[in-house]
């Protein structure tokens, strides 16, 4: 069945949370979402506190952490495997790209530095990550010498990095793409490669090969820095930047509110009707990009959590929404 509809719910927020920000990260472990990093003023990291949002009580708290606490950063990624969170890369207050990999144990509240320097992917920010039961995959981003198109996996059992073959010139280096694992393949969707692009590729670890696929249907326009999630065989993309600002990272580009789903079996896109009626407020995040987002469960349903981001007026946002697709 095609997914043609979905619904958004705006979550209440109690307690003292991170506040408005963009270029940050969030991930869900059980009934809690963990948020880290980001900026309120462009390119200025806010702090290195780890915030916890209880999805049941919808209350924020700040974690009391120990260990190797990561310094503040923007353009950072987080992903969870089991009860452990992995934080990689980003950009610090001097605008230097980073490549440290940290873990955070949600049972003990302890940070640990797992890799740095030449051990693992080179320095980057605004990259994308995805996970399966054993690996965190890191793709692309903005490196010291330009945009990247490399793919790595961190094996949480062997505790080591694995580098995969480069994709070649068809998959240009990019920031802000969608990355997801479907059917054992690592998919790369859209992104910014000097311009907004609309290509779709996957890497098959079994064959060791990259494949560019042709998609059909209601294809989204080129975009980047959108929120995305994998649910079943579908990759959902929500919002994002469709026209960059002339001011680069200092300004707001043109954002969209749209939601699309890619059926990775049929290689067909479908526009998802999600109740957007224009304007602000209500149970819809509206146009935005550079958000923190994570797949997870809320109210017993699989979906996408979206927190904050940048708005068309270049104002940082502090609201939280959860998107759930509906089978037609």
Automatic annotation (TrEMBL):
Cofactor (UniProt): Fe(2+)
Pfam entry (one): Kelch_KLHDC2_KLHL20_DRC7
Organism superkingdom: Eukaryota
A GO cellular component annotation in the UniProt record: cytosol
UniProt keyword list: Iron, Kelch repeat, Repeat
GO biological process: glucosinolate metabolic process; nitrile biosynthetic process
UniProt xrefs under InterPro entries: Kelch-typ_b-propeller, Kelch_1
Annotated coiled-coil segments of the chain: none
GO MF term set: enzyme regulator activity
PANTHER family: KELCH REPEAT PROTEIN (AFU_ORTHOLOGUE AFUA_5G12780)
Protein name as catalogued: Nitrile-specifier protein 5
